[in-house]
């Protein structure tokens, strides 16, 4: 009780600040103080004149009326510009810079104030326009760059994503925003060291460099994550290393294979002149034939790798995708190749290299189909309108987007046992394979600025190869 009483006493002792009358009322008071003394003096002087009562009263009334008009004009001349300036400042607070103060003239106190307020409005309008244009430019650049960009709040929830990020995650921004990084399989990009090489679970075969930085939005700290795909750069370095290795090995092997094959042939020729029985002569001939055949096989093997190491730059010329696919499909006679027509598209590309690439991929698909058990194969081709999964077949088609042409080769063979090794040089599961077909195909496609993806078909047996070529190289 005592403390509350003391608080009340303390509050009573605090002096209250007297409330001032509104500015307009103070102006009216000042106008009255200016006019009333003059009216009083004028009224006294008029009343002392020997005029009639009506004349005196009329003259005094006229003076009062004129003073009221002058006072009202003075009040309006003082208050109205201030109200206009208040409206201009209020509109600037609301980020509306279209209003301007009147009577903005130099060499005038109120005019100078109006000039400064108008100049401030012009400056803020210019800054706002620049900020809007800079923000629009930044958004445009972020959307156009082919680098996934993500922004996460302190709770690791996604707050910003560009079109490249949507393409990487294969979802729209409406589906992505608000989700946690763990739900998007991006938690590793927030927990790893900055500028670290990273592999993401949903982008098989790709290698990403993670760059992180911090920024604030409305005072809240956010983390900006930029993913740079360095897979192609790493492959270029690997390819360069393989090419150097192949050149060195090729030189050494060529120096050895030529005399081996020559000496084996010479010995085989002189064998008939030796004094050997038939069985010994047959054994020597068989051994020399094996040496000569293996030397020739090793030479062909080496030439295949030299082709990989000496791939020339593509010579660009108009190339019809429809004609190219139809021609390559007709070259494969071991299995039925179904060509599903796409749009009539012409690219600037090296026709010979693209043809070699498609032949390699189509040969792989055909050999995979031929590896199926004979009981699963049929000799009849299904109708053109459908593909029967039980029939051995390869399907080729293509589609066109705004920027790319996507060719697809599908087969219903056994599929890939280890898709991660598909593009490893010298790796092959075929007894007579060299391990360079897919590597050479990818090298051709990437020389044209495109990409190759090899994967097992979803929900169906077989393999799918997707070749993406840019429409403008």
Mind sketching the topology for me?
Blueprint: H1 2-13, H2 23-47, H3 53-93, H4 109-144, E1 149-152, E2 158-161, H5 163-169, H6 173-176, H7 187-191, E3 196-198, E4 208-217, E5 220-229, H8 231-270, H9 278-309, E6 317-320, H10 321-331, E7 336-340, E8 346-349, H11 351-370, E9 393-400, E10 404-411, H12 437-447, E11 451-456, E12 463-470
Parallel strand pairs: 7-9
Antiparallel strand pairs: 1-2, 1-5, 3-4, 4-5, 6-8, 9-10, 10-12, 11-12
Helix pairs in contact: 2-3, 3-4, 8-9, 10-11, 11-12
Task: Characterise the protein shown here.
This protein is an alpha+beta fold and 473 residues long. It folds into four domains: 20-127, no CATH class; 145-229, Beta-Lactamase, CATH 3.30.450; 233-309; 317-470, Heat Shock Protein 90, CATH 3.30.565. It is 52% helix and 16% strand. It contains twelve helices and twelve strands. It has helices at 2-13, 23-47, 53-93, 109-144, 163-169, 173-176, 187-191, 231-270, 278-309, 321-331, 351-370, 437-447; strands at residues 149-152, 158-161, 196-198, 208-217, 220-229, 317-320, 336-340, 346-349, 393-400, 404-411, 451-456, 463-470. A five-stranded antiparallel β-sheet has the order 2-1-5-4-3. Helix 3 (53-93) packs parallel to helix 4 (109-144) and helix 11 (351-370) runs antiparallel to helix 12 (437-447). The longest helix is centred in the N-terminal third of the chain and has 41 residues, at 53-93. The protein starts with a helix and ends with a strand.
């Amino acid at each position: 009780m005592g403390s509350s009483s003391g608080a009340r006493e303390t509050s009573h002792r605090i002096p209250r600040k007297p409330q001032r009358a509104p500015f307009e009322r103070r102006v009216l008071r000042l106008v009255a103080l200016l006019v009333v003394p003059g009216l009083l003096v004028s009224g006294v002087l008029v009343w002392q004149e020997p005029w009639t009562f009506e004349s005196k009263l009329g003259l005094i009334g006229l003076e009062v009326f004129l003073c009221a008009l002058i006072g009202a004009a003075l009040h309006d001349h003082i208050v109205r510009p201030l109200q206009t300036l208040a409206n201009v400042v209020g509109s600037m607070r609301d980020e509306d810079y279209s209003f301007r103060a009147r009577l903005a003239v130099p060499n005038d106190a109120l005019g100078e104030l109006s000039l400064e307020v108008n100049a401030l409005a012009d400056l803020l309008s210019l800054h706002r326009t620049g900020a809007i244009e800079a923000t629009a430019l930044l958004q445009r650049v972020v959307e156009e760059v082919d680098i996934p960009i993500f922004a996460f709040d302190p709770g690791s929830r996604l707050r910003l994503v560009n079109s490249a990020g949507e393409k990487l995650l294969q979802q729209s921004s409406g589906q992505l925003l608000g989700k946690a990084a763990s739900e998007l399989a991006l938690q590793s990009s927030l927990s790893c060291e900055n500028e670290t090489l990273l592999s993401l679970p949903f982008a098989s075969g790709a290698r990403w460099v993670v760059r992180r930085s911090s920024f604030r939005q409305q005072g809240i700290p956010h983390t900006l994550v930029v993913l740079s795909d360095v897979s192609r750069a790493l492959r270029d370095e690997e390819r360069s290393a393989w090419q150097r290795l192949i050149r060195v090995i090729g030189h050494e092997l060529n120096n050895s294979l030529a005399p081996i094959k020559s000496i084996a042939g010479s010995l085989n020729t002189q064998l008939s002149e030796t004094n050997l029985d038939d069985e010994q002569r047959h054994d020597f001939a068989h051994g020399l034939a094996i040496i000569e055949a293996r030397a020739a096989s090793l030479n062909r093997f080496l030439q295949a790798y030299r082709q990989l190491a000496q791939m020339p730059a593509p010579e660009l010329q108009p190339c019809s995708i429809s004609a190219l696919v139809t021609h390559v499909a007709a070259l494969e006679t071991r299995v039925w190749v179904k060509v599903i027509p796409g749009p009539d598209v012409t690219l600037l590309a090296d026709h010979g290299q693209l043809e070699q690439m498609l032949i390699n991929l189509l040969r792989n698909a055909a050999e995979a189909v031929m590896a199926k058990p004979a009981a699963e194969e049929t000799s009849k081709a299904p109708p053109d309108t459908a593909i029967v999964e039980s029939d051995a077949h390869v399907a080729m088609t293509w589609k066109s987007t705004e920027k790319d042409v996507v060719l697809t080769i599908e087969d219903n063979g056994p599929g890939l046992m280890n898709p991660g090794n598909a593009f490893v040089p010298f790796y092959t599961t075929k007894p007579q394979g060299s391990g360079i077909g897919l590597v050479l195909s990818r090298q051709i496609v990437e020389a044209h600025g495109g990409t190759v993806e090899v994967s097992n078909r979803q929900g169906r047996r077989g393999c799918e190869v997707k070749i993406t070529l840019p429409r403008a190289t």
